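Subject: design request, 437 residues
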């Protein structure tokens, strides 16, 4: 699918982005391992989350859609998870594959095989298979344990002390979920602070977990988790595209409603405010252990943005968007982000190739990039003309460059834009929903 985004200004109005993708994944997973009924309200309709819910159903849960925003899931608990009759398809979702691998490793005496699409089968899995094997898991994957399909024969696990080699909430969560059925606690030492949605949700469902700085201690279940109602706040990573759109377009003033602003997810707000962005959090409250707020954003002259290695885990989804803000404003530089090369595509390469197609100078590093603003790239009049870019079959690349199209003279054409279905099917519709001058 080819989509063209043309120059606009004066974004006005309120918008609600879909439910948080990361929290939706975890709500579905916890509904499988909790006893009783779990009602998930405002869940994400993204294809990735649909993959998780489909697997939950294949493993014995009853799934009933109450309406388009609410699903009710019934389960008999973690030790009643059924052995599936077929290979489990995680689609394009690394979260689904990595978290489910952790959970299934401790479901004794049952076989689980996880696969996915061509992109997912190329993403590194040794980062989870190694610690799970250390816990006693019988887990096998291609290329010495590094690539899906992954086969797991559930076994009795023991807790471990695990120092993470990569800052990854998915890896951390895999070990947390595996420990729930182990015979002892696990201590996880993070390389850098990462998303803590799994920790928050485990507490909400009645599990025991403790966090002290970068150390996370999780305990096996002493009693079954109990089903409950979960309200999923709106997705910050989805809201980030509209934050960027309002910042870089003239005369814009928008309000993003009911957005999750968990401290491990919303660092972009703090980072952009330090660079001069006019952003404010309003009506802040806590729901299901997660912070939620309305985000006000106005057009701003954002200064040069520099992201260090320590900040990367807190901005991992938004790094291509930071490149776009830099291209539209005063430049941006990211280092210490090698992990970007192992996403749905090599996002460092994708960002730089697309910027060059648009005439914007982008310097590629092994661990990041530097984007120079149009005036520094020698573009006539210091403005971005436009052109044709590729999504590289990556939803975040497609949406980031769509935002940049709003400040291009002739518009930007995004080839392969259908990939937004993976995380944000409503993106292009919502982009058009604002009123414009």
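Subject: RE: design request

Done. Sequence follows.
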């Amino acid at each position: 699918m080819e989509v063209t985004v043309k120059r606009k200004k004066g974004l006005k109005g309120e918008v609600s982005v879909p439910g948080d993708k990361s929290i939706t994944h975890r709500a579905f997973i916890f509904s499988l391992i909790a006893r009783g009924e779990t009602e998930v309200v405002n869940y994400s309709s993204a294809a990735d989350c649909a993959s998780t819910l489909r697997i939950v159903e294949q493993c014995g849960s009853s799934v009933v859609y109450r309406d388009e925003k609410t699903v009710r899931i019934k389960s008999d608990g973690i030790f009643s998870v059924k052995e599936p009759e077929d290979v489990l398809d995680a689609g394009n979702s690394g979260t689904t594959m990595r978290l489910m691998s952790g959970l299934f490793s401790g479901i004794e005496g049952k076989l689980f095989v996880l696969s996915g699409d061509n992109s997912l089968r190329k993403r590194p899995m040794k980062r989870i298979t190694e610690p799970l094997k250390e816990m006693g898991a019988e887990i096998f994957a291609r290329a010495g344990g590094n690539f899906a399909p992954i086969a797991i024969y559930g076994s009795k696990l023991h807790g471990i002390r695990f120092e993470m080699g990569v800052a990854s909430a998915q890896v951390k969560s895999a070990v947390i979920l595996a420990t729930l059925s182990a015979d002892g606690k696990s201590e996880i030492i993070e390389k850098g602070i990462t998303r803590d949605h799994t920790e928050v949700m485990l507490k909400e469902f009645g599990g025991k977990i403790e966090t002290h700085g970068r150390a996370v201690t999780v305990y096996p279940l002493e009693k079954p988790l109990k089903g409950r109602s979960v309200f999923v706040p709106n997705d910050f990573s989805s809201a980030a595209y509209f934050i960027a759109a309002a910042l870089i377009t003239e005369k814009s003033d928008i309000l993003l409603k009911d957005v999750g602003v968990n401290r491990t997810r919303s660092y972009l707000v703090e980072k952009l405010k330090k660079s001069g962005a006019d952003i404010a959090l309003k009506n802040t409250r806590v729901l299901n252990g997660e912070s939620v707020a309305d985000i006000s954003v106005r057009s701003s002259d954002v200064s040069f943005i520099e992201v260090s290695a320590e900040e990367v885990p807190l901005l991992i989804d938004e790094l291509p968007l930071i490149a776009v803000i830099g291209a539209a404003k005063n430049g941006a530089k990211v280092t210490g982000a090698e992990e970007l090369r192992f996403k749905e595509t090599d996002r460092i390469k994708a960002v730089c190739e697309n910027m060059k197609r648009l005439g914007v100078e982008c310097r590629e590093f092994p661990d990041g990039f530097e984007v120079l603003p149009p005036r520094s790239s020698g573009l006539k009049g210091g403005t971005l003309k436009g052109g044709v870019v590729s999504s590289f079959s990556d939803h975040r690349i497609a949406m980031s460059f769509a935002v940049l199209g709003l400040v291009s003279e002739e518009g930007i054409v995004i080839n392969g834009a259908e990939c937004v279905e993976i995380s944000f099917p409503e993106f292009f519709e919502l982009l058009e929903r604002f009123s414009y001058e």
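Residues 2-19+233-433 form a domain with the UDP-n-acetylglucosamine1-carboxyvinyl-transferase; Chain fold (CATH 3.65.10.10).
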